[in-house]
Structure formats: C-alpha cells, structure tokens
C-alpha cells in the first residue's frame, strides 16, 4: 500500500499576513538533526527584510492602538490554535532538535504555556510599569508605558519553538510589531507558527517571519532606520559588536544576548516585556 | 467659434483645424485610435526597467526637482501652506544639496501666502482655478477664479476642462474655455487638467490632449487627484505621445504632468523611464515634466538617504506634513 509519495514542501516567507516567496527566488533545504531532508525553506534577502519592516510599520498603529484586553484575547486565541497543532509541533521539534518525543512534547507544552503567560500580561503592563509620581506642585504626574514600535528579532538558533516563542511573544504582548528571522537550520516550527498566526486574529503585518541567515539579514535589520529595537539572540557571536554599532546609528533598543543560548525552560520574568516599552510621563494640573 | 482669443503661433494646418466646431471634431475624431492592449503592455514593459546606483540617484534628484508639492484640502491653512513652502525650498534640511521642488500647488486664496513664503527662491507657485476640481461653474466665475490667482502672483495656473462638455462632444466649447483661460493667465503658465479618470477611454485621452494643446495649454495634466483612478502609466504614455507629436509637427515643446496616486520612488522612476522613451530626453526637465504629488517627496527623500547612507531610512527622518 505504501507506494504513495508524500508531498514535498517548499515553504515561503510570512510578510504582512501573506506568504510570498523570497524576492531573491532563493530557497534552501532543511534537514533533520540526522541530515535527512525535511523540506525546502525560502531564503530571505535584504529586500524581504525591507518589505517585512514596511508591513510591520503599517500594522503598528492598529496593533498598538488596540485595547490591552483585545490584544490579550487575540493572543489567547493564538494559544488555542497552537494547541490544535500540537502534534505537528511535537513532530517538527523532535525532527529539528533531535530530541525524544517525550522531551519534544514538554517543549511544545512549555511554548504554549509561555504564550499564554505573555498573553496574560497585555492588560497588566500599565499597572506594573506605569506609576503615579509624587511631585512638589499642584500637578498629577503619571508615567505610562507605550510600545516601542517595530522590533527586529533574530530568533534563537537552537531552540526552534520554545526559544522563538520566548523572544516573540513579549514583543507583540506590549503592542509592538515584529520582524523575526527564524533559526537557519531549524525553521520548521517557526513556519508552522506563521501558519498559525495567519489563521488567527493577529492582524497581518504584526508578526512577519523570515527564514534565512541571521548573518545576512541581521545587518540590514540593525541599520534600518525604521526599526526601533533589535534582539540579537540569534546573531552569530562574532557579529554582535558590529550589529550593536549599526543599531546605534539609528538609536535602537538593543537586546544583548548571552554568549550561549539561555535555558529557555526556565520560568520567564518581565525583563523582556520591559525592553519593548517606552515610558511617557505626563503632567496634569490639579483642581482645574 | 465664439471666443475672441485664439491660440497663438498655430501653423496654418492647425489654424484650419480650429476654425469651427465641425472641423475641430473632424480633426479630433480623425486622430488614430489608441491600441489599448499595446499601450498597456508597453507601459508595463517599460516599468520593468531596472534603474540602480548612480542612475537611480540621478533619477531621484531629477524627480525631486519635478515635484509640484501639492496641498488641495478644504482644511488647508496659511500655516500648512507656509510649511509646505519651506519644504519646497529645502526638501531635506539636513542635506542642502537636495534640489528644490519645482512649484507649490495651492488653491487661489492661498496663492498670496505661498508667493510671499517662496519669494526669491525660484520655486514656482501654481494655483488650481476654474472651479477646481469639478469645473462646474459659469465662465465668468472661471475667469474670475483665474484672475484672482494670477493677480495674487501665481506663476502657473492649473485649470480643469469641462468634462461634461467634452464627453457630450462639445469640443468647441472646451476649446474656447481653455483659450479664454489661457488669455486670462497672461504670462502665467497654463496647465490643462484633463481628469483622465473621467474620460473613460484612451481615445478620449488622446483627443483631450490634442484639444488642450491646440487651445494653447503649456502643460497637459492627467488629474485633479480627487477622482480615482488618477494618473496611470498608460494614460501618461498617451499624453506623452501627444506632446511629442505636437513637437514634431509644430516644433513647440509642451509639458506633461501626471498627478495623483504617485506615491513611491519606484513609481516616479517608472514615469521618468516613460518620459525618456516615449517623449524624449529633452522632456526630462522640470520645464516639461512635473509630478503633482504630496507624499511622493518624502519617499524620494527617504530613498535618497537610503542610497547615500547604505542602509534603509524611515519616515522618522523626514518631515511630517
């Protein structure tokens, strides 16, 4: 019976809610940890970065302007869809990362839980990061957090799903929009995540996922004047200093990365959320 | 024909054409039909030309110098016009070498403000007139509108043709109106807005173009920007062919101005390629080709920065208007 040939996949990028091929026309084979062919993935170019940033910028007013409650609901809904694709994620994580099924299962569950954890933060950010400040004068003085803008995220190279969720979810939970460069050798969970996002309520352009080389795309993201923050987690260590320098030229928030990938299974804290928030302080006269 | 003023400098051939309504109709309807598929294919084909590096930089600077920086909103204020004028004088304040815009285009009542803000800069002031954008008013109002703009110091007048008259075949009336307004303009340049989005066919665009040229328009302009579709490449092709043919038969150089819907550098460069290929290189100058645009200038400036800085630029680095 098993004469059937399975359909071999050539995946595409995820930009502005659509799935275009790379402008460059390039693709590359993705293998599992043993070197067996899994699928072809698109290899993004600098122009794909440009398009993705344009899409992310366009999506920013709507996403950052949505109420925190609404953003939370949208993210919870993504978690529901992740749950629905659980088996696929487990298979892809197992194949990509070369872990046993049981371990893959716990990674996927951890990733979904992390997504929910960040989703819960959307309507609590203002209370935790904002404040009402005492001032010596007849004024109310408030500080409130606002989303940073468009964030470029070089996703972890090793942890293809849990790591990806851990760096992406805080960006969109704050109301920023993201251009993600996925793991080069392990892009399948990121591609499946893009399919999840495309069928969820997340507006097109809020998350854009590019598969390809962080070493090639990183410099364009870091120097792009319309990107407001960059996460260097997935950047090659030798390039990080240069990327930081390029980012400094256009005043970006830079999330530095430890020299080796952190243990993503550790319980998260709010530090990543904090990096994608800007503080605005308002003075308001009292008693008028 | 009723109107006393006649288009000056017409060769005998064309003077004959404009003698009366029926000869005008015979001429306009005798113009060769436009091959719709052909012109669209040619426009799309020329649009695929790749312009890079030094040529792109040249194209960007040329396009900046051709921009008629336009604000035609009911909500326009003196302050907005002034800031637009400042931008036309020096589009990118960080880089003084960026060329000036060609003109600022406003409603007649704001011409005075613009003239004062642009004094001595070499940037022209264009005013829309003749009951812009619909053109639905009496001739007296249209003339008064034009005179108001010219008296306030406008160096260019953008008039709209009466599309109702044109579409019902009253070519003589349209001709007379253009000729009368041209007379009212005095020394100011006249741009004739055909509003191609309302003309329905390329044949009509060709006829209206010739009508505008015969009646003495210095420029023919695609659209008001208030009707969709506004400027498109194929329509601009047809108009460029008209000015080229006009030049071939009379030796006079007349200009073309696409307006509305041109927002990106890529679009602008496609138009420049069309100008070069359809009309000819001498049209690649602000004297003979303009872009009616507002947001285009910012995109041109961003692309210029991208070319020179080696990294992508963003809207945070240009002025908001």
UniProtKB/TrEMBL annotation, chain A:
The keyword Acetylation does not apply. Gene3D superfamilies: Aldehyde Dehydrogenase, Chain A, domain 1. Keywords: Oxidoreductase. Pfam families: Aldedh. Signal peptide: none annotated. GO terms for molecular function: oxidoreductase activity. Residues 30-254 form the Aldehyde dehydrogenase domain. This is Aldehyde dehydrogenase family protein. It comes from Herbihabitans rhizosphaerae.
From TrEMBL, chain B:
CDD domains: DeoC (cd00959). The keyword Lyase applies. Its EC number is 4.1.2.4. One of its GO terms (biological process) is deoxyribonucleotide catabolic process. It catalyses: 2-deoxy-D-ribose 5-phosphate = D-glyceraldehyde 3-phosphate + acetaldehyde. InterPro entries: Aldolase_TIM (IPR013785), DeoC (IPR011343), DeoC/FbaB/LacD_aldolase (IPR002915). GO terms for molecular function: deoxyribose-phosphate aldolase activity. Pfam families: DeoC (PF01791). It is an enzyme of class 4 (lyase). Keywords: Lyase, Schiff base. One of its GO terms (cellular component) is cytoplasm. It comes from the Bacteria. Pathway: Carbohydrate degradation; 2-deoxy-D-ribose 1-phosphate degradation; D-glyceraldehyde 3-phosphate and acetaldehyde from 2-deoxy-alpha-D-ribose 1-phosphate: step 2/2. PANTHER family: DEOXYRIBOSE-PHOSPHATE ALDOLASE. Belongs to the DeoC/FbaB aldolase family. DeoC type 2 subfamily. This is Deoxyribose-phosphate aldolase. It comes from Herbihabitans rhizosphaerae.
């Amino acid at each position: 019976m098993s004469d059937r040939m399975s359909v071999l996949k050539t995946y595409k990028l995820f930009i502005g809610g659509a799935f275009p091929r790379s402008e460059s026309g390039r693709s590359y084979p993705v293998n599992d940890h043993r070197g067996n062919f899994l699928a072809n993935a698109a290899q993004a170019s600098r122009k794909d970065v440009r398009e993705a940033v344009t899409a992310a910028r366009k999506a920013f007013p709507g996403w950052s302007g949505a109420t925190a409650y609404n953003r939370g609901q949208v993210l919870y809904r993504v978690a529901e869809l992740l749950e629905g694709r659980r088996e696929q994620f487990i298979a892809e994580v197992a194949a990509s990362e070369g872990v046993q099924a049981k371990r893959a299962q716990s990674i996927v569950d951890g990733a979904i839980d992390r997504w929910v954890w960040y989703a819960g933060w959307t309507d609590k950010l203002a209370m935790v990061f904002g404040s009402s400040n005492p001032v010596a004068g007849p004024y109310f003085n408030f500080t409130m957090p606002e989303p940073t803008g468009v964030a470029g995220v070089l996703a972890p190279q090793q942890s293809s799903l849990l790591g990806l969720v851990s760096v992406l979810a805080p960006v969109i939970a704050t109301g920023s929009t993201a251009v993600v460069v996925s793991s080069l050798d392990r892009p399948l969970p990121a591609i499946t995540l893009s399919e999840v996002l495309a069928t969820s309520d997340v507006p097109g352009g809020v998350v854009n996922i590019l598969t390809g080389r962080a070493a090639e795309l990183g410099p364009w993201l870091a120097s792009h004047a319309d990107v407001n923050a960059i996460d260097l987690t997935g950047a090659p260590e030798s390039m990080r200093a240069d990327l930081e320098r390029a980012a400094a030229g256009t005043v970006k928030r830079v999330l530095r990365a430890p020299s080796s990938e952190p243990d993503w299974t550790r319980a998260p804290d709010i530090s990543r959320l904090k990096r994608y928030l800007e503080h605005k302080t308002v003075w308001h006269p009292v008693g008028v | 024909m009723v109107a006393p003023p006649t288009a000056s400098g017409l060769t005998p051939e064309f003077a004959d054409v404009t003698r009366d309504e029926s000869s005008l109709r015979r001429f306009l309807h005798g113009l060769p039909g436009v091959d719709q598929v052909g012109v669209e294919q040619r426009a799309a084909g020329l649009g695929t030309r790749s312009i890079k590096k030094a040529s792109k930089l040249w194209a960007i600077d040329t396009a900046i110098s051709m921009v008629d920086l336009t604000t035609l909103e009911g909500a326009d204020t003196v302050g907005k016009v002034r800031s637009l004028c400042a931008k036309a004088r020096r589009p990118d304040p960080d880089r003084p070498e960026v060329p000036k815009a060609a003109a600022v285009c406003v409603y007649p009542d704001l011409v005075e403000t613009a003239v004062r803000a642009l004094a001595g800069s070499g940037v022209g002031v264009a005013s829309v007139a003749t009951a812009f954008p619909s053109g639905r008013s009496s001739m007296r109002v249209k003339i008064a509108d034009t005179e108001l703009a010219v008296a306030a110091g406008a160096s260019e007048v953008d008039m709209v043709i009466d599309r109702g008259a044109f579409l019902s075949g009253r070519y003589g009336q349209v001709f007379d109106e253009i000729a009368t307004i041209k007379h009212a303009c005095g020394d100011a340049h006249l741009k004739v807005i055909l509003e191609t989005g309302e003309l329905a066919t390329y044949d009509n665009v060709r006829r209206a173009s010739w009508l505008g040229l015969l009646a003495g328009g210095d420029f023919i302009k695609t659209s008001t920007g208030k009707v969709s579709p506004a400027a498109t490449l194929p329509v601009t092709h047809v108009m460029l062919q008209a000015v080229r043919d006009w030049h071939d038969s009379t030796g006079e150089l007349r200009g073309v101005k696409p307006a509305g819907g041109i927002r990106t550098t890529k679009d602008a460069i496609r138009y420049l390629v069309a100008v070069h290929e359809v009309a000819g290189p001498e049209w690649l100058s602000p004297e003979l080709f303009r872009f009616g645009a507002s947001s285009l200038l910012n995109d041109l400036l961003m692309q210029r920065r991208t070319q020179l800085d080696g990294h992508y630029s963003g809207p945070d680095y240009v002025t908001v208007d």
